[in-house]
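Researcher: Please predict.
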Amino acid sequence: MHVVYMIFIISLGFCLSDDGHEMEEFLKREYSLSKPYQGIGVSGSSHWELMGDSIVTADQVRLTPDVQSKQGAVWSRIPCNLKDWELQVHFKIHGQGKKNLNGDGLAVWYTKERMQKGPVFGNKDFFTGLGVFIDTYPNEEKHIERIFPYVLATVGNGTIGYDHERDGRPTELGGCNAMVRNLKHDTFLFIRYVRRRLTVMIDIDGQHEWRDCLDIPGVRLPLGYYFGASALTGDLSDNHDLISMKLYQLTVLRSKQEEEEEEEEVTIPSVDNMELLRNYYEAEGMSGIAIFFTVLFSMLGLFLLIVVGLVVYGHWNESKRKRFY
């Protein structure tokens, strides 16, 4: 089945297109992590470096064990200077905890900083670059619109913090639910960045089919950042295992006009419609307040109607008694 899946992935790369633009993909081994993980964490010649509680076994890079208060990561030593790329991540999240009694999740990074511990799934807060998170524990009490585990993407410019209490909602570009824990089959995450468009898909159903998660245009990421993966446990825990990260260079045919439009060098990560997203979340917060006051005034109105009704009924009953004398 693994052979069939790899043939499917390779053939897929030659027939996929982006908005009518033909693409070819080429595996870049210097940016890829896969078995047998030779020299990781012990050899200076390795392209990858371990951090924190992560360990290497014959079958995976275990970012965290199923133990409380652990964090670990693996980072590329080589900055990536590819304009268009595609990252396929093979991972596994499993543990003894039952539903909603596990945490906290796994993150895949393309950032300016590397090898820095922190609270954002084992990486530093106020990061600069792209983070794609597989969040397995809901911190926000009212998460009606979300089913966890949940996959989301965020772009940071070094001044934007990750809101743990709201599970990253204020800075989320988009996301989808992904039931990835304790599965018997393989689970994959697909991240593509081409022509300043970010696409994330998942393959978690054991059917070897990609499912759309998010597709955001106008994402501007600088060259020369580092790929990495990290994970974190707190009071709750899980095994967060990374089996492989395979990076493909995409060759995209562009028109002359497109080439001229993209000549401007990107130095700070940004998203063209980020303000619209912020306004959406602010409106979302206001809608909650509006709902509260709507319910409050409705209850007051109902109470007032009951009081008026009782007064009217009392007057009517009094006048009725007088007619009998």
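Model: The CA atoms of residues 48 and 213 lie 28 Å apart.
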